């Protein structure tokens, strides 16, 4: 057995953190490279954890395969649903602890750790409940192909699903991936990000408590280029679902080509907001601000480029800077004064600061922030650039931090062209009080998700995913049931005619 570690969280909660790997319903030692778990608010090491080696990945996949072919496949769909329902109840029971773990490990903030609590964990509870109810509603169709023949379609699980998740919504990304996969009758091997492994390992305890058969859920923290790569290239894994950067998505797609794995990729973004001259400017400024600054700017759908009609440009800038100033309360994720916490890691912190320098030297007008905040921890000031141009790196590349680029446009066609002027296509927001313009522009935006008069809404019933280099496939809602099943057509000859 791998040892557990007692952890005291900054808000006084104490708990027993499992370490190692969760395979076959047990915490077992890992044999791969060690990595440090950092508290980004202090940039100090909490513990070091051993990561999964290639041999460990083999063990986890074998456990998932045995479970898939054994007890799990014998269960009625309604009973799979009951297990998911039990998990949802346990998540709800432990919501404060789970939120505190993610706030500690990731730095999630905004009015204490409320983002983690009411955002991530309550959403995860709902996701498990949604798929608990969906498990026994997965159906195929029956089609009469001629008077003497018919065919019916079975919607069957894919098998063993490898799931590789990022660090920006540690527990919620687990929920988005694990719940629909299990509802469809698959088994999973989940690799959390090395920056935020704690809540995923803790989930292993809930899996045991809920009584799931051994091997249905396996959790293997580890280094991406070792355990993630081994999982993506494993010949006995049937599907890879991934959320993270477009470059890693590309590498995973190549690794997954060996046995033509089914893939779902949810990758990067550089999502635009368009503010038309007839928008409610107060609302637009408010949504545009939270659309980029929420979660320290570490959101794949962050609306990091804002295009504003020239007639209201100066007015919008004034309001946007005012809101940024009001919410520039950067600091301790567990303090009720805080709106913005630390960035997740030294690497992300360095990358964001270098983009800020790049923005300054490329001639963008700095309206707020522009440097690190404080002397300890990975804090960065919310940073606002105006008068940006399409050729600038800060307009073209994903920064993944609290940095926004604002510029103006004159015509609707120009706004749409600029919004679409990117290799990404994850999301887009638009602000107007004109109903026909809103729907017309929504259709022209090359994005998997469009928000009219808001930003960064998502809901467990609604498909989530991107166009272009932002990904392949969709998560959540009924769409995830397609992503985790395959169709088998059974042809039935009722007569004797050929
Ligand atoms: P990443 O995409 O490399 O990491 C995401 C996950 O993939 C982690 O679990 C990691 O261990 C795993 N991974 C890494 N290399 C792998 C490989 N070769 N094979 C299989 N799995 C692998 O992202 P990273 O390095 O943490 O962040 C870099 C940038 O990626 C960020 O600055 C941001 O721009 C973007 N990103 C986007 C996210 C999103 O939600 N779309 C989430 C996290 C990062
Ligand atoms: Mg951490």
From TrEMBL:
Q: Where is the Aldehyde dehydrogenase domain?
A: 27-490
EC no. given is 1.2.1.3
Q: Which Gene3D superfamilies match?
A: Aldehyde Dehydrogenase, Chain A, domain 1 (3.40.605.10), Aldehyde Dehydrogenase, Chain A, domain 2 (3.40.309.10)
Record-annotated active site = 266
Which reaction is recorded as catalysed by this protein?
A: an aldehyde + NAD(+) + H2O = a carboxylate + NADH + 2 H(+)
Write the record's keywords in alphabetical order, separated by commas. Answer: Oxidoreductase
Q: Which InterPro entries match?
A: Ald_DH/histidinol_DH, Ald_DH_C, Ald_DH_CS_GLU, Ald_DH_N, Aldehyde_DH_dom
What name appears for this protein in its UniProt entry? aldehyde dehydrogenase (NAD(+))
Q: Which family does it belong to?
A: Belongs to the aldehyde dehydrogenase family.
The organism of origin for this protein: Cylindrodendrum hubeiense
Q: Mind listing the GO biological process terms from this record?
A: carboxylic acid biosynthetic process
Q: Name one GO molecular function term.
A: aldehyde dehydrogenase (NAD+) activity
Q: Does the keyword Oxidoreductase apply?
A: yes
């Amino acid at each position: 057995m791998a040892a557990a570690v007692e952890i005291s969280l900054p808000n006084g909660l104490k708990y027993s953190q499992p370490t190692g790997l969760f395979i076959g319903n047990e915490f077992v030692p890992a044999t791969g490279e060690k990595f440090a778990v950092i508290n980004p608010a202090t940039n100090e090491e909490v513990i070091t954890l051993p990561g999964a080696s290639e041999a460990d990945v083999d063990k986890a996949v074998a456990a998932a395969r045995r479970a898939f072919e054994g007890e799990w496949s014998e269960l009625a769909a309604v009973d799979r649903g009951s297990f998911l329902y039990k998990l949802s109840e346990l998540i709800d029971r432990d919501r404060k602890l789970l939120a505190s773990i993610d706030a500690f490990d990731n730095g999630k903030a905004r009015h204490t750790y409320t983002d983690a609590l009411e955002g991530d964990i309550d959403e995860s509870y709902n996701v498990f409940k949604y798929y608990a109810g969906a498990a026994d509603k997965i159906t195929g169709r029956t089609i009469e192909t001629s008077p003497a023949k018919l065919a019916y379609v079975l919607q069957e699980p894919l098998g063993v699903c490898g799931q590789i998740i990022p660090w920006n919504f540690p527990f919620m990304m687990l929920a988005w991936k694990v719940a629909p996969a299990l509802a469809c009758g698959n088994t999973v091997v989940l690799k959390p990000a090395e920056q935020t492994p704690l809540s995923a390992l803790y989930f292993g305890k809930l899996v045991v408590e809920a009584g799931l058969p051994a091997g249905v859920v396996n959790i293997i923290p580890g280094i991406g280029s070792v355990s993630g790569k081994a999982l993506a290239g494993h010949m006995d894994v049937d599907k890879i679902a991934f959320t993270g950067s477009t470059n890693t998505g590309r590498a995973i797609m190549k690794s997954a080509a060996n046995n033509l794995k089914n893939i779902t990729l949810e990758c990067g973004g550089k999502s635009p907001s368009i503010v038309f001259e007839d928008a409610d400017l107060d609302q637009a400024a408010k949504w545009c601000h939270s659309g980029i600054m929420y979660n320290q700017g570490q959101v794949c759908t962050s609306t990091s480029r804002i295009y504003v009609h020239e007639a209201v440009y100066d007015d919008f800038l004034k309001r946007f800077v005012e809101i940024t100033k009001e919410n520039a309360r950067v600091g301790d994720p567990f303090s009720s004064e805080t709106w913005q916490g630390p960035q997740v890691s030294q690497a992300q912190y360095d990358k964001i600061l270098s983009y800020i320098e790049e923005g300054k030297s490329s001639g963008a007008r700095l309206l707020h922030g522009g440097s690190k905040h404080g002397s300890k921890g990975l804090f960065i000031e919310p940073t606002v650039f105006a008068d940006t141009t399409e050729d600038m790196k800060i307009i073209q590349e994903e920064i993944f931090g609290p940095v926004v680029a604002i510029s103006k446009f004159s015509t609707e066609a120009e706004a749409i062209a600029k919004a679409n002027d990117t290799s990404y296509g994850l999301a887009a927001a638009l602000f107007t009080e004109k109903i026909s313009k809103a729907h017309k522009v929504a259709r022209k935006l090359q994005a998997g998700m469009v928000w009219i008069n808001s930003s960064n809404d998502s809901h467990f019933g609604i498909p989530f995913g991107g166009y272009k280099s932002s990904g392949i496939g969709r998560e959540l809602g009924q769409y995830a049931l397609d992503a985790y099943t395959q169709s088998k057509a059974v042809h039935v000859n009722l007569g004797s005619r050929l």
